[in-house]
Amino acid sequence: MLFYAALMIAKLQCVVLDCTDVVELSRFYQALLGGVVNQPDPRWSLGDGWATLHTDSGFVLAFQRVEDHQPPQWPDPARPQQFHLDLGVENLDHAQEEVLRRGALLLDAGDGKRGWRIFADPAGHPFCLVRD
After folding, report:
1. Which residues contact 94 (CB under 8 A, 6 or more apart)?
2. Model pTM greater than 0.85?
């Protein structure tokens, strides 16, 4: 296996998710990942159309209001998922209960043998719970 070293051009600051309700979606991901919603940060201006979630691991998710947001329709290629998050969990069944209770929608439970399940957040973005 070959590994290539590359010069770093940039550092990932955050992943931005389009949605219609930035507060609702930031609170959803806070319930899943922990952290602080709208922690003061000089990199971003907070407001009605923008929210952030600073997780305990240092990762930042941002949420941007888009009035005519059209959520992906997994697995329909006419409205593809665009991106998704893989979130590691110890217990898939327990994690599934928790994300559903917080507003997620189960898209694909799999066959019971694989180590992940696919959900949509309240704004329709797909994400996977993956057994650690």
Report:
1. none
2. no
When pLDDT is averaged across residues 22-32 and rounded to a whole number, the result is 96
Domain shared by 103 and 85, yes or no: yes
Residue 6 lies in a domain: no
Mark which of 50, 66, 82 sits at the end of a domain: 66
> Does 46 or 34 have the greater pLDDT score?
34
Is 93 in contact with 112 (CB distance < 8 Å)? Answer: no
**Residues, the chain:** 132
Pair of tokens at residue 98:
């928790």
Q: Which residues are bridge partners to 61 per DSSP?
A: 15, 53
pLDDT at 56: 92
* pLDDT, averaged across the chain: 88
Tell me the C-alpha distance between 105 and 127, whole Å: 10
User: What amino acid occupies position 58?
Assistant: G
Structural domain that includes position 56: 13-66
DSSP 15-41: EEEEES-HHHHHHHHHHHH--EET---
Looking at residue 131, its pLDDT comes to 87
